[in-house]
Design a protein that fits this description.
mainly beta, elongated
């Protein structure tokens, strides 16, 4: 009887296995936790977009990119991607943005997330400088002006150096004008200007303006001749320094040029003092100050 029961049990098990009846074994593969994303940085920068990239995480199924929302003070997911780069568009120029990214792995219906990367804090570029032009020119200087760039910190003025055959930075200013001195009379010069946004030790530069060409005033025979009726360069210099309350020993880059504007002979006096640039136009015979400009250097 026992042999019969054992035989029946074996036969039943065999039938069950044949028809797939009975217990089954399910193999579950748990999703591994991906490593923390590293190397998050800006690959390309513009005034309205940033292209971000990061280092590939081995075994990751994809990545989630987050941007910090300053209005709600929360992190918001802006993209889920399988790539290791993404172009963030429709941004504001010369503005700070913060980003972070994390990797994830998927196994069936289960998703496992890794740790967030270190936060990347960066800026978009300021906009391009527009409307560069000359508001004034003399035999030795040119005063340039341009339109204000929103949220820009400062501006760099470049001049084309014919010897070096390249543009070199001539000056950096806070405002939207700059006087470039020490030029030759009757000579054409080429300029371009760009804005930048400063944050700590970092500077984010915008695109250069279109190149602007301007010719300095040529010296005329009347402006170069000496006349006892003119006050002279020494007197003109003294008038400008006295008006500014600056002694000659403290003035830097002091220059005096005799010029002619609208048929009137004048002296152009320029110098730097205590972080400011002074420009005077003085009547050559009366000594009257016709024009005065003071700008932070």
């Amino acid at each position: 009887m026992k042999k019969l029961l054992a035989k029946l049990a074996v036969t039943t098990l065999a039938i069950a296995m044949f028809f797939g009846i009975g217990a089954s074994v399910n193999t579950v593969h748990a999703a591994t936790t991906p490593a923390k994303v590293s190397g998050l940085k800006v690959a390309e920068r513009d005034d309205d977009e940033l292209t971000l990239k990061w280092t590939k995480v081995s075994g990751a199924s994809g990545y989630q990119l987050y941007r910090y929302d300053t209005s709600t003070k929360t992190w918001k997911k802006i993209k889920t991607t399988s790539k290791t780069n993404y172009e963030v568009e429709n941004l504001t120029s010369a503005t700070q943005y913060k980003f972070r990214v994390r990797a994830y792995t998927k196994s069936g219906s289960k998703t496992t997330y890794g740790s967030y990367s270190a936060t990347l804090t960066t800026y978009t570029e300021p906009g391009e400088v527009k409307n560069l032009k000359a508001s004034k020119k003399t035999t030795s200087s040119v005063t340039l002006t341009w339109s204000k760039v929103s949220r820009a910190t400062k501006y760099q003025v470049y001049i084309y150096n014919t010897t070096q055959k390249k543009y070199v930075c001539k000056t950096t200013v806070n405002g939207t004008s700059a006087t470039i001195s020490g030029l030759s009379s009757g000579t054409t010069y080429k300029f371009k200007v760009r804005a930048y946004k400063a944050s700590g030790d970092s500077k984010y530069y915008g695109d250069f303006s279109d190149v602007y060409s301007v010719k300095t005033t040529a010296k005329s025979s009347s402006s170069t001749s000496t006349s006892t009726s003119y006050i002279g360069t020494t007197k003109a210099k003294s008038i400008a320094l006295t008006d500014a309350g600056v002694t000659e020993s403290k003035a830097r880059d002091l220059e005096v040029e005799q010029d002619k504007e609208n048929g009137v002979v004048v002296y152009e006096v320029s110098f730097d003092y205590n972080g400011y640039e002074y420009d005077y136009t003085i009547h050559a015979t009366s000594g009257k100050i016709l024009e005065k400009e003071v700008e932070r250097d």
